[in-house]
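tool_call predict_complex ligand=beta-D-galactopyranuronic acid
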Amino acid sequence: MIVLFFAVTTPFVPLIAESAIEDFKAVANYDERNVRPYSLPNPLLSNDGKKIANVQDWIGIRRPEILKLFEQNVYGVSPSRPANMTFSVVTDEMVFAKKARRRKIKVLVKTSQGSKAFHFELVTPNPKTPSPVILGLNFKDDLSNWPLEKILERGFGVAGIPYVEIQPDQPDSLSKGVAALYPELQQREDNFSAISAWAWGLSRAMDYLETDPQVDRKRVALIGHSRLAKAALWAAARDQRFFLVLANDSGEGGAALARRNFGETTRAINTRFPHWFAKTFRRFNDHEAQLPVDQHLLLALVAPRPVYVTSASEDLWGDPQGEFLGLKKAEPVYRLFGLQGLSIDRMPVSNSPVWASVAYHVRRGRHDLADYDWEQFLKFMKTRK
Ligand code: GTR
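tool_result ok
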């Protein structure tokens, strides 16, 4: 209340007042007993009420329909692969006692509005054969926060894009970054949002990786943490070249069900991060029940490819239970493909991963991409052929 009063009466209030940020967290519901009943859109019922009973109808009818609903109502539209795009190798060296090769690749995109470049680092185990690669957006501009040596020892390559090179992460930043190359997409209510721009950047990195002889192009997995896990899920949902997705603590706008009033809400995320989603998404502030989708449908778009959802036990803002349920409610689509869901119906205790065609764990501890998470991800990937 005090915050609202402040915002309304002070003319020079910053777009996101720090006090407002704290206030959303302070007033959030963290009590399971206060979760209101909700009902979710059925993954296997089309917009016009047709029952989706086979893979063909899923692929031909329901999948495109859900993708479009997410574009229109949540993440906004994205440009297609740019006609004018070039890749160049900026640096190239052998590392880890010549056991691995590390390159920095520049992606340059041009449109009639100008040009924009971003980079990513690619490290591959010294190869006689192409390696599977784990690709992700990174908060850092190098790979120093990821367990490089461990990843390489397990036989995987890794690629990381400093996410703000694609699109800055600030309110009012959509006139910059790659979004600025497509001003016509910013005129729309379902505009090219920051999360869509980051996801689109992942697909552009994939455009390169597909051409690299040291990369097993059929085994490019996505990883992301937090806001970057939201983007990884949206990228995997849209772009079926990705082999699987590892979505760590993705929370609201990621794997967590929007209709569950627990932790972060649609209003909180749209207020604190107005650039992350399309403008249309704001219509659902306090009206999540009117969303034509919910986040289980985002996970379902990844089917039949594996999706690994994780939570952290202390990350109540991210709603661990809502992330688990998002995954469970996507399972009917995996079953349509003849794949098995998780063997459990209730969220497992901390540090007990459960794997099937989809996978889940809740790690003991706080919101983070921790060694424990990496360890499970690498083991899980070893089980996927
Ligand atoms: C939080 C935000 C979450 C999550 C997180 C992050 O402040 O509310 O949705 O994305 O940031 O990305 O670190």
